[in-house]
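Annotators were shown the component list below and the corresponding predicted structure, then asked to write short factual statements about the assembly.
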Amino acid sequence: MEDKHQEFIKFIQTNWNDSIHFEVDQHRILNSELQVNQVYSLINFLYKDLQFKVNNLIDLCGIHFPDQKGKELGVIYHLQSLRIPIICRLKVFVPVEKPEVPSITGIYASANWMERETYDFYGIQFLGHPNLRRILNMDEMIDFPLRKEFPLEDPFRADKEDFHFGR
Amino acid sequence: MRTNLEYRTEFLNPDMPDIPYSTLNLGPTHPATHGIFQNVLKMDGERIVSGEQTVGYIHRAFEKIAERRPFYQITPLTDRLNYCSAPINNTGWFLTVEKLLGIEIPKRVDYMRVMVMELARVADHLICNSILGVDTGALTGFTYVYQYREKIYEIYEEICGARLTTNMGRIGGFERNFSPKVFELTKKFLYEFPKIWREFENLLTRNRIFMDRTIGTGPISIERALNYGFTGPNLRATGIDYDIRAHANYCSYNEFKFDIPVGTTGDTYDRYVVRNEEIWQSLSLIEQAMQKIEKCDPGVFHADEEKYYLPPKQEVYNNMEALIYHFKIIMGEIEAPVGEVYHAVEGANGELGYYLISDGGRTPYRLHFRRPCFIYYQAFPEMVQGQLLSDAIVVMSSLNVIAGELDA
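Structure shown to annotators:
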C-alpha cells in the first residue's frame, strides 16, 4: 500500500512537472493544496486516468479560516479509487472578497448538490455550475451561516434570557 | 402499449406537437414520500416528463451546532441523521474521534460494535423493504415483520436505555457492559426472525404483482450510479461490489466472513433483493460476533483511556483523580490534538463519512457529514423520467431516502 502511494506521488509529479505535490499523512490520506486554476484540470486528469482510477468523488465541502489573509475560504475534495486503497484530499483556498472556484459538475454529476450546499453555507461561487442556488437554507437568507462570524444563536433574542446561568 | 424507451425517444423528438403538461407537487408532507421533502413533477397524463426535488425542510444546522460542542455532545446529533439505524451513526462518529485521538480499541468492543451495527442494519433494511411492500400495495407483510423491529429496539433498550435515537456507546467503548439479557434477547431474535423473514420473502420475492411493479422500474446504469456518487445497497444493486466493511476494514470486519450481494440492472427489484440478502448476511455477522464475544474477557467493554472515557461513578465519589477527570470530561475541557480525519462507515444506505478538522480546542473546528442520501437523491429525476407516477413512489421508497439524513 505504501508503494502504491509513492507510485502515485511520482506519477503525479512526472505528469504535472512538479507543480503538484502530494503528501501522505498519518491516516494514509494523500493531501495536496492546489491553485484555483489547477482544480478542474487535475480532477479531470485523475478521472480519465486508467492506471490508478481515482474516479470517485466521495465528498466536497467548504471551510472558513478568517485569519488566513487572502486564503479565507476553502473547498476540500475527497477523491478515491475503488480498486486501490487510495484517498486523495485536495484543497483549494480563495480570498473572501472573490470566492470563485471552477465547478466540477461537468465531471461528476454528484458534485451538483454538494457545490450548492457549499455555496449555501460559505458563499463560494462555483463558476460554470448549472444551477447555483441555495439548497438547505431558505432562499430569502442573505448570510452564509457556516462562516465563523455568523453567530450560532442570536445574541439579541429577548425571549430567551436566562439570568441564572449567566448567559 | 409503448415501452418506456419508446416513450422517451418520442418525447425527445422536437417535431412532436405541443402537449400541455401539468405540474404535480408530490410532498412536502405526503404519505408516499416517507419524510418531508418535495418533488415537483412535470406530468404528461400519468407519465413523468421531468422532476425537481426541493430539500431542506428539516435542516437543523448540525454542522454549525457541532462547532460549539465538545465531542461527546455531538453523538446525539448523529442519532438524528439516519434515525432508522442510529447505532451505526453513533459508532461511525466514535470511530472518527478515536482515529483523531489515536485510541486503541479492545477486540471485544469491536465485536460488540459489530453486533449492534448489524442489528441496526437489519432494522433499517427491514423497514425499507417492508415499506416497499406497502407502496406496492402489500400492507400485510409490513405489519407482520414490523414487530421484529420492535424486538431489535428492545435489545437497544437493554444496552443503552433508549430506542430510536440511541446515543449508544462512548468514545472508547460502551458506557456499560452488555447484560446477559442482551445476549439472551439477541439469541431469541436470531432464532425467531429468520422464519418470519423467510415468510416475508415468500410473500414478495417471487410474487407476480410485486415483480411486475418493480422489475425495470427506476433502473440506473453502473456509470451513472458511480457518477452520481451512489454507495451502499443502491450501488451494489447496479453490480459493483463496493462495501466499506470490506474495502476499508474498520471495527475488525476483516475477521468476519460475509458475502457482498450484488445485482445486475440497478432497478427497484434488484435493490430489494440486495437488501434482503444483506439482512441474511447481517444475521450471520451477528451470530459470528456473539461467538467471538464469548471467547473474550467478559469484563472488557471500553478502552482504558482515562482522559476521554468517563470513570465509573463509585470512583468519582471516592477518588480524587477520577473526580477531576469526570469534571473535565463533563465540562468539555479536554483538548483534542490538532488533526484532520476522514472516516467512513458502511451505513444502512451508503457511505456515511465524517470529516473532522480539529484545531486543538475542545470542539471540532469543522465537522462535515457525508450523508449518502443527500448525494444519491440527486439522481431521482433521471431515474423516474418517462415512468409512471406510481413507479416514482416505488423508486423513492426503494432508494431509502431518509429526511433526517438528507437535510442534516
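Statements collected:
1. The CA atoms of residues 373 and 406 of chain B lie 5 Å apart.
2. The longest strand of chain B covers residues 338-347.
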